[in-house]
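Example record for the data management plan.
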Amino acid sequence: MEVKLFLPEYVSQILSFERQNLSSDLSEIQKEMASWESSWREESLNHYSQLGWSFVLLDKDELTGYLLAQPFLFFNKWTQSLWIEHLNFTDPKGGALLVDTLIRWARTKHLQKVLMNSASPQSSFVLETTPAMKVGQFLHLSTTKMQEDVL
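Corresponding structural encoding:
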């Protein structure tokens, strides 16, 4: 397994990956409608592929997971934070590798927090694989040794 920076060349692979994961009970119209309301819709993927904060997981050139993230400024007294918008993977080890890579990337860039919606389907996985992640309104992890704030 190899983690790579999410670049525009991976957009079509992610779209195919996600469409394959949609329920086979859905009609083609329902699948298309679901894609319009998802974190992985094409315009969203095009946005994230330009930022340099998202990653893909490849196994022998086949996409087996990805993570969408972006930084933002001045939230809850923190100067810089990183928001995990979406995480999907086929293998739990690969999912853990994606999250670990993102946290390490945030630390090297001196961001103060990594945040994720605590109601997301992936939040329990992130809690299990990242023991330092704390629960609040959002899942959050301090990437610096600064004073802990409660969300």
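Summary line stored alongside the record: Residues 3 and 57 are 5 Å apart (CA to CA).
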